[in-house]
């Protein structure tokens, strides 16, 4: 088959005008002759022969190594020379076009679909879900579990997508989370949330779930005593299988609670983000709370303000604030929900095999976000839990959401305490997800701000210069989460407001006044979290203001000054290093250091980590003392058993330092070393004395403290540990006893 190279050019040129063509550095050539003649032709044109295209023909695959691997232009000179060569019977520089997935999108035929105003295109804003469907993403291969009050598993609009492996009944301890029907208190919440995510499409029933081809499970865990253990087991249920956990519950939204996950739930979150999804991290989507009418603030809810949960706020169809919305700087994004009676609400499945168009509250918003994130995980299943948060920040937009507190942060993104980064745009999210490059491992920089006592009356301002761990391996140049951990007592906690201002002048309201919070319990190492400085460079001056907005007689009482420093995570973070690098603590190395061996881990994936040898070994192939390859000095290897003998030091053999050389060395050492040691000690004492007379301002991370009242009062803020992340530890302590957590569904 020989064709003219002229016609090829025409084709290429024509296609360029329609679609971008990428030219490679590989050529196909049709040549005839002996192998020597073929070699000669290749050499003449500077080509490298890669082989025959078909085993029994004269088509050759050749590479031109001097040409870029990808180029928008065909190589004119090489093609011209090949064309002029009579021995080249045919040739073509290989070019590629992008190949898009083909899918046909048709508007769902479900009877309630037209009422799903938040999904369909209209003149008003919408979540742009149809755009993601049109790109072929419907949640296939993604598993979502609703942690709630049970599920009507046989509901005809859910049954097809129901996944028993993503389900459990924690309340009755059996695998079936089937709803317990009750006339007085219908347990419909879980079933309603499930339909928002994964109601089946085109089945003539109800509406359509955002991710209508995702698998959906339910965990019945709110229908009984909610204990720490039940929460923890729910958050870690089948974590290899479940991708996204959607939770629309938390401490009661009474505007006076300060509660977070207790011991086991805290551990469950860390295990989830470390081990879930094969080490990529479980995705926890969380409702921000319905305490708006009680002036609640979601930074007082340790579940939603956890860095491990992706907190979702709500807006109405008009882009206004629903009455139940509560603000906080931990909210990341917003989805639609109901508002007052005149606003349309969310269409979903309901108990007794029915449908409803009456779902509302942040309860509706969290599963809507969970469904949209399921589309993103289908577009890119390799996203880590932090990747998902990065993408959500980028795929949320101000749209037409109305509130008084939109501000532009230090990297130019509008952000609000009610809406986070704005309305989540599904089309944009899947587009970004499909080309997203995984973020580097998490880093954590902790700064102890003040460790002595201050009394707080009207206003306390702390200003300090942060180097963001410059000079250490935890140096942070681009922020994700920031936590201000605070311990203080105060006569009326609800009168306090706390504001944090970044070096880029981004203002995070960490706490707003809560009139119903009358307690004097204060805060005990409570981590206030902000996402508003995402991607900002944290170095520079930060300002933290604690203000009393109530009675001027308010004041604190002294509590024991308890300095808690954030320490490195006790849990192994999975650091994935690309072959041939080895993960070692938080970095990737070319080889494991002495005392460490290479482990492939339990995972089926191929990344390799350095794990510590037994203390007896210098190098090893495993963690046992019978896995030694080399021994430390003064210890001998038993190569048959791969063990090291107990060390025998030369100075253990008393009286052996007898030869003249050793004795001379010892005398010289004493004569020269002695005076040096004395000189050093004297210098150190002089340095310490001079330093103790220096003013405090000479410290590197300088803290200025000003209060708005006179200085004669003693001060009473006990401790502020200020932590900035690309990574964080969690609220380390909840402030109330937790045997029976009054978790409430976020259904208005
Ligand atoms: Ca059951
Ligand atoms: Ca349906
Ligand atoms: Ca709340
Ligand atoms: Ca959160």
From TrEMBL:
Residues 173-183 have a biased composition (Polar residues). The keyword Membrane applies. It comes from the Eukaryota. It is found in: Membrane. One of its GO terms (biological process) is intracellular protein localization. InterPro entries: Furin_repeat, Galactose-bd-like_sf, Growth_fac_rcpt_cys_sf, Kexin/furin, P_dom, Peptidase_S8/S53_dom, Peptidase_S8/S53_dom_sf, Peptidase_S8_Asp-AS. It holds the Pfam family P_proprotein. Keywords: Cleavage on pair of basic residues, Disulfide bond, Glycoprotein, Hydrolase, Membrane, Protease, Serine protease, Signal, Transmembrane, Transmembrane helix, Zymogen. Signal peptide: none annotated. Its cofactor is Ca(2+). Residues 439-587 form the P/Homo B domain. Residues 162-186, 726-748 are annotated as: Disordered. The active site is at 148 (charge relay system), 189 (charge relay system), 363 (charge relay system). Belongs to the peptidase S8 family. This is P/Homo B domain-containing protein. It comes from Oncorhynchus tshawytscha. The lineage of its organism: Eukaryota, Metazoa, Chordata, Craniata, Vertebrata.
């Amino acid at each position: 088959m020989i064709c003219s190279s002229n016609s090829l050019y025409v084709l290429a040129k024509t296609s360029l005008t329609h679609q971008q063509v990428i030219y490679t550095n590989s050529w196909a050539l049709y040549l005839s002759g002996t192998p020597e003649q073929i070699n000669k032709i290749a050499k003449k044109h500077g080509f490298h022969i890669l082989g025959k295209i078909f085993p029994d023909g004269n088509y050759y695959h050749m590479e031109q190594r001097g040409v870029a691997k990808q180029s928008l232009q065909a190589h004119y000179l090489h093609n011209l020379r090949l064309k002029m060569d009579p021995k080249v019977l045919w040739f073509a520089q290989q070019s590629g076009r992008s190949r898009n997935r083909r899918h046909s999108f048709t508007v769902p035929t479900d009877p309630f679909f037209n009422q799903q105003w938040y999904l369909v295109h209209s003149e008003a804003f919408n979540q742009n879900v149809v755009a993601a469907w049109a790109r072929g993403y419907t949640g296939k291969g993604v598993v979502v579990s609703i942690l709630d009050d049970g599920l009507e598993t046989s509901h005809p609009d859910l049954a097809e997508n129901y996944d028993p492996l993503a389900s459990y009944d924690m309340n009755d301890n059996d695998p079936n989370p089937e709803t317990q029907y009750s006339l007085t208190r219908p347990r419909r919440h879980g079933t309603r949330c499930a339909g928002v995510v994964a109601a089946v499409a085109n089945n003539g029933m109800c509406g359509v779930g955002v991710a209508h081809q995702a698998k959906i499970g339910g965990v019945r865990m709110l229908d009984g005593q909610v204990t720490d253990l039940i929460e923890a087991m729910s958050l870690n249920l089948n974590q290899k299988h479940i991708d996204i956990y959607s939770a629309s519950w938390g401490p009661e939204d009474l505007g006076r609670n300060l509660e977070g996950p207790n011991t086991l739930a805290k551990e469950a979150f860390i295990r989830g983000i470390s081990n879930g999804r094969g080490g990529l991290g479980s995705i926890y989507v969380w409702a921000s709370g319905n305490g708006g009418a009680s002036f609640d603030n979601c930074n007082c809810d340790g579940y939603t303000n956890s860095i491990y949960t992706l907190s979702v706020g709500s807006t109405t169809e008009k882009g206004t604030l629903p009455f139940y919305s509560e603000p906080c700087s931990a909210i990341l994004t917003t989805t639609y929900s109901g508002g007052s009676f005149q606003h349309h609400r969310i269409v979903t499945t309901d108990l007794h095999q029915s449908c409803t168009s009456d779902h509302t509250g942040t309860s509706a918003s969290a599963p809507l976000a969970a469904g949209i994130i399921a589309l993103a995980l289908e577009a890119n299943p390799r996203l880590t839990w932090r990747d998902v948060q990065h993408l959500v920040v980028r795929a949320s937009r101000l749209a037409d959401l109305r509130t008084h507190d939109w501000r532009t942060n230090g990297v130019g993104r509008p952000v609000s305490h009610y809406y986070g980064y704005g309305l989540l745009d599904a089309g944009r999210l899947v587009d970004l997800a499909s080309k997203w490059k995984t973020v580097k491992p998490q880093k954590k920089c902790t700064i102890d701000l003040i460790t002595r006592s201050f009394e707080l009356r009207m206003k306390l301002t702390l200003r300090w210069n942060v180097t963001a761990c410059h000079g250490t391996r935890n140096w942070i140049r681009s922020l994700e989460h920031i936590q201000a951990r605070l311990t203080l007592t105060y006569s009326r906690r609800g009168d306090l407001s706390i504001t944090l201002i970044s070096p880029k002048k981004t203002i995070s309201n960490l706490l707003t006044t809560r009139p119903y919070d009358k307690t004097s319990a204060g805060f005990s190492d409570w981590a206030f979290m902000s996402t508003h400085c995402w991607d900002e460079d944290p170095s520079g001056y930060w300002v933290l203001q604690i203000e009393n907005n109530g009675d001027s007689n308010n004041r604190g009482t002294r509590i024991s000054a308890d300095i808690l420093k954030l320490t490195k995570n006790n849990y192994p973070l999975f650091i994935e290093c690309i072959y041939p690098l080895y993960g070692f603590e938080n970095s990737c190395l070319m080889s494991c250091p002495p005392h460490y061996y290479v482990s492939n881990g339990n995972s089926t994936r191929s990344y390799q980590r350095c794990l510590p040898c037994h203390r007896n070994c210098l190098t090893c192939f495993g963690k046992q003392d019978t896995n030694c390859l080399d021994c430390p000095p003064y210890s001998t290897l038993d190569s048959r058993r791969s063990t090291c003998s107990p060390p025998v030091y030369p100075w253990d053999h008393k009286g052996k330092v007898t030869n003249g050389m050793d004795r001379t060395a010892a005398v010289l050492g004493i004569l020269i070393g002695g005076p040096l040691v004395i000189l050093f000690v004297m210098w150190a004492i002089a340095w310490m004395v001079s330093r103790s007379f220096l003013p405090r301002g000479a410290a590197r991370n300088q803290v200025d403290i000003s209060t708005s009242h006179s200085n004669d009062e003693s001060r009473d803020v006990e401790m502020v540990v200020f932590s900035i992340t690309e990574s964080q530890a969690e609220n380390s302590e909840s402030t109330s006893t937790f045997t029976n957590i009054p978790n409430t569904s976020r259904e208005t």
